[in-house]
Amino acid sequence: MASVLNTVSSIRLANSKTSRRRTPPVSPPFSLTLARRRLTVRATETDANEAIKSPAPDKAPAAAGSSVNQILGIKGAKQETDIWKIRVQLTKPVTWPPLVWGVVCGAAASGNFHWTVEDVAKSIVCMMMSGPCLTGYTQTLNDWYDREIDAINEPYRPIPSGAISENEVITQIWVLLLGGLGLAGLLDVWAGHDTPVIFYLAVGGSLLSYIYSAPPLKLKQNGWIGNFALGASYISLPWWAGQALFGTLTPDIIVLTLLYSIAGLGIAIVNDFKSVEGDRAMGLQSLPVAFGSEAAKWICVGAIDITQISVAGYLLGAGKPYYALALLSLILPQVFFQFKYFLKDPVKYDVKYQASAQPFLILGLLVTALATSH
């Protein structure tokens, strides 16, 4: 529930090189121009002597951008003028599947899901709440508060480029939030809950999404806290919603899924490498900024692999050796793709790595869910 999700101040980690740099009093690094209710964000010029020395990311979209990439909200998107396609792009549908899968895992872990029309309908509504509504809310909100950073990293994105107006973005945020909360309340009534557990989870996840992106807390300013919050939104919250819908959410499941969220922290770090320039300029202490790309690569894969190995150990200790073995077998291909793609170049191969390795991680989630249901 990434607001749930996906899906995240405070402890400032700064590398020694950054701490030695003295910043002279200058005008604010960004300017906002509102013209005809369209928002344009641009970075102001920086003195050449003070420019941050780092490889510049690709500032322009592909010459022949992909319509599919545009709808999914990923790199290489076609520049679009259709307002509804832009609205969908802001919700980043490519981020919905982990939330949908989390609901599946929660339903499986409950042990009470049955292949009836009613149970399938309930699960679909829960997936709509977690994915398009609340993850869409989270992604749109995050893009809104990231508009200055995107003006550096990806100035052609819909908000900094002015392709969508300020009022249109804010309206979309509210519609998706209220729609998600409404579906959560409906699910509680449908499930016959005396306590609206799913509604509370939706409210909590939505609040987490807000403080992840928005000042003054802006959890994403700290690589550890922000990425863990993001991981919990993508793994724990939708799992809890699915399990609460069909069964009872127990303390041991809460602890286990929060542990799994450390793997989610690692997955979140993958997306930080492409934004190093903008994060550094805006003072965001993502792990690649704080520790350098080389160290952050190993922190990333360590969080993903060690977490899953620990969960396999838990399953073995709980008397589920076959599930533990199945989980371990799903870790091996992830390690292979980490060395083949991610550890070689986390910026160049981030999409290939995630497309190759993450299916095995989410299958491991289902294995864990099935183990806890028996």
Please describe what this structure looks like.
- The protein has 374 residues and is mainly α.
- The chain has one domain (33-40, 66-373): Farnesyl Diphosphate Synthase (Orthogonal Bundle).
- It is 66% helix and 3% strand.
- The chain contains 16 helices and 2 strands.
- It has a two-stranded antiparallel sheet with strand order 1-2.
- α5 (117-145) runs antiparallel to α8, α8 runs antiparallel to α9 (197-213) and α15 (321-342) runs antiparallel to α16 (350-373).
- The protein is globular.
- It starts with 15 loop residues before the first helix and ends with a helix.
- Mean pLDDT is 84; it is low at 1-38 and 40-58.
- It catalyses: phytyl diphosphate + chlorophyllide a + H(+) = chlorophyll a + diphosphate.
- Belongs to the UbiA prenyltransferase family. Chlorophyll synthase subfamily.
- InterPro entries: Chl_synth, ChlG, Prenyltransferase_related, UbiA_prenyltransferase, UbiA_sf.
- GO terms for molecular function: chlorophyll synthetase activity.
- Residues 51-64 have a biased composition (Low complexity).
Ends apart, CA distance between termini:
25 Å
Main sheet makeup:
2 strands, antiparallel
CATH-derived architecture: Orthogonal Bundle
Q: Judging from the principal axes of the Cα atoms, what is the shape? A: globular
Q: What is the C-level CATH assignment?
A: Mainly Alpha
Q: Could you give the count of β-strands?
A: 2
Mean pLDDT: 84
Please list the strands of the largest sheet in the order they lie side by side.
Answer: 1-2
> Which segments are poorly predicted (pLDDT under 50) over 5 or more consecutive residues?
1-38, 40-58
Radius of gyration: 21 Å
Question: What proportion strand?
Answer: under 5%
Q: What is the count of DSSP helices, taking H or I runs of 4+ residues?
A: 16
Element-level helix/strand string: HEEHHHHHHHHHHHHHHH
Structural class: mainly alpha
Count of spatially separate domains: 1
- Helix amount: 55-70%
**CATH fold label:** Farnesyl Diphosphate Synthase
